[in-house]
Amino acid sequence: MTNDSRRYLDPEVASRVSSLELRARQIVEGLMSGRHRSALKGQSVEFAQHREYTPGDDLRHLDWKVWAKQDRLYIKEFVEETNLRATILLDASASMDYGTGETHKHSYASLLAAAVSYLLLRQSDSVGLVTFDQEIRAEVPHRNPTTHLQTILHALHVESPKKKTDLEAIMRRVSESQSRPGMVVLISDLLADRESVLKSLRMLRQRRHDVIVFHLLHEDEMEFTFKGMTRFVGLEEAAQLTCDPRALREDYLESLERYLGDLRRLAGQTGVDYRLTRTSEPIDAVLARLLHERIRA
Amino acid sequence: MLSSWFVNPAFMAGAALIAAPIIIHLLHRLNFRRVSWAAMEFLLDSQRRNRRRIFFEQFLLLLLRCLLILGVVVLLARPLAGERLWSLIAAGQRSEHVIVIDDSFSMGQRLGTTTGFGEGLRMTRLLLTGLADQPGKQFVTILRTSQRNEPEIAGAPLDRPLVDRFGQLSESWEPSDLATPPGDGVAQAASLLAANDASQRSVYLVSDYRAKDWGEEGDLVKSLRKLSENQTELYLLDVASQASPNLTVERLSASLGSAAAELPFDVAVEVHNDGPDAVERVRVHPRLNDSPLPAQTIERIESGQSARVTFPVRANEIGRHRLQVSLEEDALATDNKRWLAFDLEPSIPVLIVAGDARRLGARFLSFALAPGGGVNTGLVATIHGPEFPTGVDLAEFRAVYLVNVPQLDGKASEAIVDFVKDGGGLGIFLGEQISVDSYNAQLAAEGGFLPAALGPVRDVSDENELGVGLAWQSHPVFRVFEGERNPFLDAVRFQRYFTLSDEEAARDEESIVASTSEGDPLVVESTLGRGRVMLFLSTVEPSWNTWARNPSFVVAMLELQRHLATPAIEGPEARVGVPWQVDLDTALYRPAATFTIPSRGDGAARTLEVDAERTGLAATVTLDQTEVAGIYRLTRTRTDGSEEIVAKAINVDPAEGKLAKLTAEARRELLQGIEHHYFLPSDFRADADEGAFEPRDVILLILVLMLFFEQWLAYRLSYHLK
Question: Is the ipTM of this complex over 0.85?
Fold first, then answer.
């Protein structure tokens, strides 16, 4: 077994991945129970080429003949005939490392990414994943076998986020790597340079991607209900501010609302499916709303 | 310094507590929790926009909390208010205040439940409190006009304890019996301030502002003008006494010349009505040696006028007596009483100098004055003659009669002149032996005592055998004969009498007391010094007339004696405030004396031993402390050790009882060109009576408002979720 294989068998990672999968399955199965028509469609049949095995690839696609001949693990790839190629972009910057428990932004984002992936893979759509901060930290290519979920789940595991976000560069890279328009699901707190965020989303839409943005914010960030003298230390910035948060709350909320307003306007203008999501919201409810609105659309 | 501003200055140490909110604020800022935060952009953006507002709000809240603590501290320290801007500007400067309090007895006029004097003390206390509250160095001198040379408080630093001291001192103060004009007090104040280098000098005159004290521009106005010219601030504090009906015992006198033990003598009381209306049935209550005598009534006294009541008084005991009269209570009590002290001898000695050897006229006169037997006139007549008794002290006699004395030498004439000038009475009867030339040359000349120069004797018997009748003017000697039912004098006839010289023909008719029915003068009166001289131009004995045989003679002679023994001009009345000086003949008395001084009200008299001031053989003892009206006594010791007591009544000045106010117009006219400030009691707030105005209520109100504002601001800044 290779070193990579051993890494994948890290018990902690395996436990987390399996837990994530289990939860994602629970969410999606519960969600899809009784549902007959897929909201997110995609199929694939024709062989195209071999590529090296990466963890998470469906073992059913292993070319045993090649392994028998060359003792190397190759996966058979098929020409996509699916009608949906989804790329999940997961923000793993330092700003996502806020919150505790289930409301921790990055944890929430991971679970949401897993759930979306499962949802898509369940209907045989091709799903890819990119986790990023100011650069791409992990990338899972588009595949549609349900076994691909494991690969995605492994990729979701990121050690505590530490770096800043460079959304524009990442978006450009992802966009350029896409040969044809597909679905882009961005899960991020969008706490980056405002112009760059807007520009990135606009760019994705210009390339005719179906863009779904899960704008994740923690309850604290939405309500800012801190009391007492507090020193705020920037997660991505070196700045710090000691203040009575109650004195700044009103203006903070106004600033935030202005930003959200800009995003909503942009979404309205460009057709981005913008979804402001509090990490306190149940993910199944978030997905249910998404599916419901998509079916209606 | 703080004591000038606060009642409890020690509490101001608590002002350090205003640091508490600042320290708490700083500690609060240091005690923060740390939060790693993603959305710093929005937070920093908010901070940038709100930095000024937050600083201002926090600063205002902090300031309010500091002020609240300071307010509580100030409230406990009890600040004194009334400071004015100019006072603050003047802080550090030295101010000298002289307060002159008029304590003349007119200040004792009742004003409701208090008196003018009491009102003056109240105003003074408030004034002191107000001055004590002012910043800067304040010094005060307080003097009463009755004791202006001995200020009660002299140049003392003015602070709250001094105000309290004044309050304690003034509790025992009351108006004096003196009539010291306020001008004397102001002059004293000017004198005190003349040598003072204070940057601000003020004189306050607390008085009742009576017209009598101001009148024409007198010393008072001159003193005020001088003070004003010397840059002294003048404050006139009027206790606002008003003119009100007031009766004053103006005079108490007795015909002591005809007074002796067991003999009635006349006492006269004059009462002045100072009120605007006439008063009727004024009751006068006499007391002899503290025993009440029947009250007397004056039927009516017109406004602004005086009226007299005369009544007989008899004392049986020989020696010292004291008589007091009083009126019923009115606005001013002090001038309702008057005292008289007198000694009664067992008899009234008179001297008759008989010019003729037979002493015929003298015996007739002596018989008329002291008939003897069962009739006691109190008079004891001593007859000398034919020469004038030069070795006799005339002062021992109440009256001296010259009966047909041919002439007198210069020494005798001088003795008589001195006797009359001192208040003695002299009766002169003429006769055959008179030397007209000598009389005219010596006795009628300047410096003599004869009322008129004599002319020749006129004998009317040739023309009218019975003689001419007697016609008299209304005069004390003849007043008893007035009326239709008294015809005795009509029967008196004069055959011979001296005429007056031609130079006397045009003399004042008022001096002619009686004349013949044909108009020739028969009785001429004059005054010399304080005494009286009555010249009868005929004889006593019935040789030139028939009077001595007429029953009216005795009566007329007794009336003559009474009239002559009563001085024409009464001696100066002893007034309060005027030292009592008594000469002591060191050959007879030891050079010291003990004075007994009456007290005000019902208090016990006190004694004061005074050593005499000696000038050669003469010595004088002086009592300066005569501020209280009443009977004073002097006990002097003879060289043989025996004691002798002299009594004297010292009374108030009745003019002080004139309560007419100085009108505002008159005051303005008198004080024209003199910068001054005039205040009434209403200008002194009653609510500050117990002390200076303390703005506790105001501070409390401000504190409450500040507290509400602080709470509101704190609530607002606590950023409650809306």
Answer: no
